[in-house]
């Protein structure tokens, strides 16, 4: 079997490079045949005591924070970890994918520069979210395509369908379009135009508009939307899950109800957005996992699991749950 | 005390005019000094046996469904209940507000025709949502202003602030702007432009961008957004609440855990979007409550409670919870 390597960018996450390093350690423990390339400060990586012979360093001390301008960072003289990681991903055949938890704009700009699969197709970032029926819906785009046009939404439909075909072996993933009403006449200008295009697009199993309260109902396998709206769906779903789970824990304390803790724990395992892996960048030569800024070691491991599954063409993303 | 009347449009809701009539009955029971004017079919209303002397009929057999074109309905020869209700609200001084659960486009067109407060300001529809901290946030707009411009978002900030000042006696309601990141540089074109305007607007206590996972965190009293995005926040929050509550009930059955039902019931009372009253149209001469299509009798009663509170200049919207 050929060598398989995952690149992990240690810099840019809210919990710091140490947490990302712990994620790398979990990856090496779970996958004895996987190697990692770690982008970050040499000293820190060397001191981590990772298993010998299965890691290498992409030395970089600089990162791009959310307050930095990604384009300026691009012309920095010192090596910037995210660009170094992306460049390496494009150069090395054995790299099966990359994990990053930093500035999305920088990741996006770097991916376009170093990893673009097709020059006519802009990448986007999908998220795989748990549905009420126990399955998963691919939400695309989740924030990379702010203010895009209708043709790009059609592109998302293809990219999302391809992903769900390979992750879940679906023959014809059902594609829904996020709108403010289920009727085909509902939507903003962009959605109405995209609706007309999707309805006649070859190779797309279009099931029509999906309303905001049905986004995670399992009515579609791919939910297409422009990046600003998709970002709201992703983050609002997470926020609501956190609000309700917090409320249950408070209730349990107030009413001395020990079952509340058990139920909150169960919901956290079903709707734990922080550990759900990460967003998946589509349209790049290598799979790029965009973890949340607040991503923890489990999120790194989950992202690696998806990379390994995609590389092995397996359909058991469910296994991470 | 002068006569106070609430107009209830019986037609257009998913559960039918009978459910709206039951809502009217609850309103008359709870508020002995309130009268109602009921827009709908004469026979049905007369057969309901409501308390004598406190109701009248605005006869109309026709409604506007979600599949109808609101503008065509406007030129209908037969009386259409929503237009009849709005016209009456504009004409009669004793009317303190109106409740409708039908086609939003028709309600909006009719409100502009019959009830516009200021010809230069388009109305919008706000929703008062429960926050994690036990308070409420006014989300504005929730779907009436699809594809609007930045100046209109500034208008929403004023309209929402006015509402929260009268409902909660807040001196300087904190106004947040929905975006895809907390930093001022984040947002689509519309949000970036609105951010610059809001930051220098007099009479607005602007607290900056609010991310999707913080919409109901209680960080602001008024959350401003364009209608398509607001519709996503409103419906997605509701959908997630329903998903998690359903999951708790399933868990309780599967693990024979009776406390699950108790906890689900508690969450339903805290996050019951269906009974939370309704959207509130702002920018009209009379308060118009836009209930959901699926609104039940409790939602009608809650909407009436808000109308009465606003008319009496009270700040106890909390009392409905």
Overview of the molecule:
- Two copies of one chain form a homodimer.
- Chain A is of the alpha/beta class.
- Chain A has two domains: 150 residues, Isopropylmalate Dehydrogenase (3-Layer(aba) Sandwich); 150 residues, 3-Layer(aba) Sandwich (Isopropylmalate Dehydrogenase).
- Helix content of chain A is 41%, strand content 19%.
- Chain A has ten helices and eleven strands.
- Chain A has an eleven-stranded mixed β-sheet, with helices on both faces.
- In chain A, strand 7, helix 7 and strand 8 form a beta-alpha-beta unit.
- In chain A, helix 1 crosses helix 10, helix 4 runs parallel beside helix 5 and helix 8 runs antiparallel to helix 9.
- The longest helix of chain A is centred in the last third of the chain and has 28 residues.
- The C terminus of chain A is likely disordered.
- At the A-B interface, helix 8 and helix 9 of A face helix 8 and helix 9 of B.
Structural key phrases:
321 residues; alpha/beta; Isopropylmalate Dehydrogenase; 2 domains; eleven-stranded mixed beta sheet; 11 strands; globular
Low-confidence regions of chain A: 315-321
CATH class of the largest domain in chain A: Alpha Beta
The second-level CATH architecture of the largest domain in chain A is: 3-Layer(aba) Sandwich
Helix content of chain A: 40-55%
Radius of gyration of chain A: 20 Å
Note the quaternary state here.
Answer: homodimer
Could you state the order of secondary-structure elements of chain A as H and E? EHEHEHHEHEEHEHEEHHEEH
The name CATH uses for the topology of the largest domain in chain A is Isopropylmalate Dehydrogenase
How is the largest sheet of chain A built, in terms of strand order? 3-2-1-4-11-10-5-6-9-7-8
CATH superfamily annotation of the largest domain in chain A:
Isopropylmalate Dehydrogenase
User: How many structurally independent domains of chain A?
Assistant: 2
Q: What structural category do the secondary elements of chain A indicate?
A: alpha/beta
Number of strands of chain A: 11
Q: What's the pLDDT, averaged over the residues of chain A?
A: 90
What proportion strand of chain A?
Answer: 15-25%
Largest sheet of chain A: 11 strands, mixed
Ends of chain A: how far apart? 28 Å
């Amino acid at each position: 079997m050929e060598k398989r390597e995952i690149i992990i960018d240690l810099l840019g996450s809210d919990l710091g490079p140490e947490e990302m390093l712990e994620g790398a350690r979990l990856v090496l423990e779970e996958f004895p045949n996987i190697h990692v390339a770690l982008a970050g400060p040499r000293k820190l990586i060397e001191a981590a005591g990772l298993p010998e012979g299965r890691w290498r360093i992409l030395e970089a001390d600089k990162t791009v924070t959310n307050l930095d301008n990604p384009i300026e960072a691009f012309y920095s003289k010192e090596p910037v970890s995210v660009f170094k990681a992306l460049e390496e991903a494009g150069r090395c055949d054995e790299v099966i994918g990359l994990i990053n938890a930093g500035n999305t704009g920088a990741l996006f700009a770097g991916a376009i520069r170093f990893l673009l699969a097709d020059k006519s197709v802009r990448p986007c970032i999908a998220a795989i979210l748990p549905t009420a029926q126990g399955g998963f819906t691919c939400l695309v785009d989740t924030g990379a395509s702010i203010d895009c046009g209708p043709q790009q939404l059609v592109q998302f439909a293809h990219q999302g369908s391809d992903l769900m075909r390979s992750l879940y072996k679906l023959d014809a993933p059902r594609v829904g379009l996020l709108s403010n009403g289920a009727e085909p006449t509902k939507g903003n200008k962009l959605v109405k135009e995209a609706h007309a295009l999707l309805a006649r697009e070859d190779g797309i199993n279009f099931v029509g508009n999906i309303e905001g309260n049905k986004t995670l109902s399992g009515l579609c396998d791919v939910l297409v939307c422009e990046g600003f709206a998709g970002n709201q769906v992703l983050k609002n779903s997470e926020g609501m899950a956190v609000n309700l789970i917090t409320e249950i824990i408070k209730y349990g304390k107030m009413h001395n109800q020990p079952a509340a803790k058990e139920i909150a724990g169960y919901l956290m395992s079903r709707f734990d957005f922080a550990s759900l892996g990460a967003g998946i960048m589509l349209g790049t030569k290598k799979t790029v996992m965009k973890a949340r800024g607040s991503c923890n070691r489990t999120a790194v491991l989950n992202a690696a699991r998806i990379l390994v599954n995609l590389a092995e063409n397996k359909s058991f993303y469910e296994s991470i749950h």
